[in-house]
Amino acid sequence: MTHPATPDSPLADTVLDRLTNVYGAAADPVRAAEAAAYMKHVAPFLGLRTPERRALSRSVLKGTARPDEADCTAVALRCWELPEREYHYFAVDYLRRWVGRCSSHFLPVVRHLLVTVPWWDTVDTLAAHVVGPLAAADPALVSVMDEWIEDDNLWIARTALLHQLRYKGATDTERLFRYCLRQSDHTDFFIRKAIGWSLREYAKTDPDAVRDFVDGARDRLAPLSVREALKNI
After folding, report:
1. CA angle 65–67–69, rounded 5-degree value
2. Mean pLDDT, to the nearest integer, of 172-190?
3. What's the pLDDT score for residue 2?
4. I need a surface site. Which of 16, 79, 167, 188 has the fewest CB within 10 A?
């Protein structure tokens, strides 16, 4: 997969300059080491607690313009080039806020983020709050989700499983259940957990449908998936 091109963006120039100065000045090496250990050393950390980080982010973005898709692309890709995980979190929060400014052409950028330094902490928010809205806005992306559920990369498959997580009554239940069955024999914890989580979330909307599906597919679903799916029913 080719690396998406980073467009020129004066807005991104401003944001990244402010961001690296503000985040860098607040770094805490002790908390950074603790955070890196907790997150299995997927990336180095600056050591910013979430409430503090988000307050700093608000100061970074104060007075900045609404981005267009090129700005979102530039901010996200440039944040992802920085090693510390908090910069990735900033990008995820930024995209979550401004996904409505992006078209279906933005999906390859998101895929790059999903497979670059991948772990649940970034993948899950991108799946539910960026990929999900993009797919909801453009029905043509449904076929892309059908490709992603078949992907050998577990984070792409997990994203396909979770992209409808916030859809509630708009959930395509046939697709949700089909995706769960397609990956039901996957041996990885993160896929089995995602199956259960996607079902548990939809059970808040239609518990009977989830219960019936699990009852009919219990011999194919991992025990972890079943427990998660039925946890609140």
Report:
1. 165
2. 98
3. 78
4. 188
C-alpha to C-alpha distances, 210 to 207, 222, 227, nearest whole angstrom: 5, 15, 12
Reduce the DSSP state of residue 37 to 3 states and report it.
helix
Q: Assign 202 to helix, strand or coil.
A: helix
Architecture label for domain 1-102? Alpha Horseshoe (1.25)
Q: List phi, psi (to 5°) of 104.
A: -65, -20
User: From the CB of residue 1, how many other CB atoms can be counted at a distance below 10 Å?
Assistant: 9
φ/ψ region of 5 (left if φ > 0, alpha if ψ in -120 to 50, else beta) reads: beta
The pLDDT score that the predictor gives to residue 78 is 98
In whole numbers, what is the pLDDT of the chain averaged over residues? Answer: 98
Contact 209, 202 (CB under 8 A): yes
- Please identify which residue in the block is written with the tokens 């989830």: 210
Cβ neighbours around 95 below 10 Å, total: 28
d(CA 51, CA 93): 13
Q: For residue range 142-167, what is the model confidence (pLDDT) as tens digits? A: 999 999 999 999 999 999 999 999 99
- Give the H/E segment covering residue 178: helix 173-182
Q: Computed from CA positions of residues 189, 194, 137, 142, in that sequence, does the dihedral angle turn out positive or negative? A: positive
Pick the CATH number of 117-233 from 3.40.50.720, 1.10.3720.10, 1.25.10.90, 1.10.8.80: 1.25.10.90
